[in-house]
Amino acid sequence: MRITSQLICQAADDLKGFVGLNRKTGQYIVRFSEDSFGMDVADDGIMPASEFVWSPASGQTMTLKRESIQLLLDQHIDDRINITEPLRVYMQKREVPEIVAVRSLKD
User: Fold this and answer.
1) Taking burial as the number of CB atoms within 10 A of a residue's CB, which of 5, 34, 38, 90 is the most buried?
2) 34-46, pLDDT tens digit by residue?
3) What are phi and psi of 74, to 5 degrees?
4) CA 3, CA 34: separation in Å to the nearest integer?
């Protein structure tokens, strides 16, 4: 199977779960319900994992951040969070620049 940037972006958008920054520890944590974070994570700091891996670049573009994907990989819950082969390939190809894309909502 040939892995394209389109497949990688789709795999990023298919991530499951939520990410929040624990204010006490300064560590990002992953949960599978927005309600399961507790008092140490601000409600406005909880975001879907599929959004967490994207960072604003310039204009309307966003960058698919390897650092954020690595944080998810470090949780060792690949199946639950839906980390698939295209994202693994993206993480292995360090010589290739991070993907920069224009993201938009589908109808």
Assistant:
1) 90
2) 888 888 898 888 9
3) -65, -15
4) 32
pLDDT in tens, 82-99: 999 999 999 999 999 999
Q: How many CA atoms lie within 13 A of 63 on its CB side?
A: 10
Residue with tokens 């624990």: 22
**Six token digits for residue 54:** 């994207």
Positive or negative torsion for Cα 87, 67, 52, 74 = positive
Q: What is the CATH number assigned to the segment(s) 5-102?
A: 3.90.1650.10
Q: Where along the chain do its domains lie?
A: 5-102
